[in-house]
Design goal:
It is globular, with a radius of gyration of 16 Å. It is mostly helical. The chain has helices at about 10-25, 35-45, 50-60, 70-85, 95-105, 110-125, 130-140. It is built from 7 helices and no strands. This is TerB family tellurite resistance protein.
Length: about 140
């Protein structure tokens, strides 16, 4: 039985899906090294993944496919939801950033676009956006 089938709660199921995708991305080049595992443990904490769920996802035989949304809006929605979770502690370090960038590429963004989107998202979620961007966002409000 897939691990996601064990959970009814929508938010937790989404978090588990995000985590499974991150674990799959980390394992793309073979083994997950200790540094990658430490980063995944940080993400597991932020995503409220239990120790049992962590162990299940990390099993070598459990490789979860990355579900690439077909529309650009859905890709941005996934990243937005993910950033909301990541910034629950108001912090993202360089290693987490690299994994998030891989996640964005896995969602279907080009590597260059993924890097730019992650940079802008970090600025937005940390409140360090330039006035021009803030003003443009405010002008678009409905």
């Amino acid at each position: 039985m897939p691990i996601l089938d064990l959970y009814e709660h929508g938010d937790h199921r989404k978090n588990l899906a995000h985590f499974a995708t991150l674990a799959s991305l980390a394992a793309v080049d073979g083994e997950i090294n200790p540094k990658e595992k430490a980063i995944l443990e940080k993400f597991a904490f932020k995503l409220d993944i239990t120790e049992e769920e962590f162990k299940e996802v990390m099993k070598k035989e459990n490789k979860y496919p990355i579900e690439t949304p077909h529309s650009g809006e859905q890709r941005y929605m996934r990243l937005f939801e993910f950033f909301q979770i990541i910034f629950s502690d108001h912090d993202i370090d360089d290693e987490e950033r690299r994994i998030v960038e891989k996640y964005a590429v896995g969602l279907g963004f080009s590597p260059k676009s993924a890097s730019e989107i992650v940079d802008k998202s970090i600025k937005i979620f940390t409140g360090r956006i330039p006035f021009e961007d803030y003003h443009e966002l405010m002008q678009r409000r409905s």
